[in-house]
Amino acid sequence: MVENIIEMANVKYKYDKEDSTYAVNGVNLNIRKGEFTAIIGHNGSGKSTLAKLINSILLATEGKIYVKGMDTADDSKLWDIRQAAGMVFQNPDNQLVATIVEEDIAFGPENQGVEPSEIRRRVDDALNAVGMYEYRKRPPHMLSGGQKQRIAIAGILALNSDCIILDEPTAMLDPSGRKEVMYTLKKLNENGKTILLITHYMDEAVQADRVVIMDKGSIKLDGTPKEVFRNIAEIKKFGLDVPQVTELAQELSEEGLNIPPDIIEVKELVDLLCQ
Ligand code: ADP
Ligand code: MG
Predict the structure, then answer these.
(1) pLDDT value for 16
(2) Taking the complete model, does pTM exceed 0.90, yes or no?
(3) Which pLDDT does position 57 carry in this prediction?
């Protein structure tokens, strides 16, 4: 049986009692261990609020959230929850605290009271897992944005987290930095980490196992990238783009070509057209 790392049942959240609308409005979402889920949605659709609820930064107004079976409303579980599901934020410069890369990664386990030899092992493992071992003695401010985000990810790995939640980690990066981060996340996922990636890039979302679309605080579509992105008209209603190749494939299909409506990768379409 595959267990759920995150369970959310009818979760609602308001920033202010006086608010007439909920920032998160009745979300039911279970994230299975080992799954790579992308959450997409227009600005203000509640994605960041949802991430903060999972991480116990915010407390649900209604409904229940469990991380590895721990109730996020239980104060005594706060650090266990943040250890189990670590967060990476948009701005890499706000997350790195130390003056040397390896010290930054050691910061979390040090605060947990992990013994020094174990910290050394975890820091080295984490550096290798994100491909940054040779940068371990560098000052973080000398790194590129993509490298800084990889260090932020390594900091979570050093806590032995099962799940990594990333809130638009590539929004401030250039294309090569974005690729580095996606490559790192896919590799970590192949090695068993559960990934919850909030993004507004469709090319990142199509690489996930599962895509969840949020609008006005609730989940509107949830399925594999193919199941979700074929709903072009609906997705556009939420103010989102679909992968260009999906749109092209559907237009070609309307023109009479025998092409399925759920193409999400350029290579798929090229292979079909070249047959
Ligand atoms: P997203 O991450 O999808 O852009 P957010 O979760 O940041 O969406 O925002 C959801 C809603 O909550 C929006 O209407 C936003 O204006 C509101 N909101 C977000 N943060 C705050 C805050 N700190 N105080 C009050 N309202 C907020
Ligand atoms: Mg956000």
Answers:
(1) 94
(2) yes
(3) 95
Q: Ligand 1 atom 5: the closest Cα is on which residue?
A: 46
Cα 68 to ligand 2 centre (Å): 24
46 lines ligand 1 (CB under 6 A): yes
Distance CA 229, CA 242 (A): 6
Position 209 scores a pLDDT of: 97
CA distance 156 to 117: 18
CA-nearest of 6, 19, 95, 96 to 53 is 6
State whether 81 and 180 are in the same domain: yes
Query: Which pLDDT does position 275 carry in this prediction?
Result: 84
Ligand 1 atom with the smallest distance to the CA of 46 is 6
Q: Is 67 part of any domain?
A: no
Q: What is the CB-side half-sphere exposure of residue 200 using CA atoms within 13 A?
A: 17
Distance 181 CA to ligand 1 centre (A): 25
Q: Which ligand number lies closest to the CA of residue 46? A: 1
270 with 216, same domain: the answer is no
Answer yes or no: is 215 within a domain.
Answer: yes
Q: How many CB atoms lie within 10 A of CB 82?
A: 20
Range of the domain at 162: 35-48+74-230
Residue 41 in contact with ligand 1 by CB distance below 6 A: yes
Whether 226 is covered by a domain: the verdict is yes
Note whether 110 and 191 are same-domain residues.
Answer: yes
Instruction: Answer whether residue 204 is part of any domain.
Output: yes
Residues in the chain predicted with pLDDT less than 70, given as ranges, are 1-2
**143 and 207 co-located in one domain:** yes
Measured by CA distance, the residue closest to atom 21 of ligand 1 is 15
Q: Residue 177: which of 148, 217, 213 has the closest Cα?
A: 148
Amino acid 2: pLDDT:
63
Q: Write the residue with the smallest CA distance to atom 16 of ligand 1.
A: 44
Rounded to the nearest angstrom, the distance between the alpha carbon of 48 and the centre of ligand 1 is 7
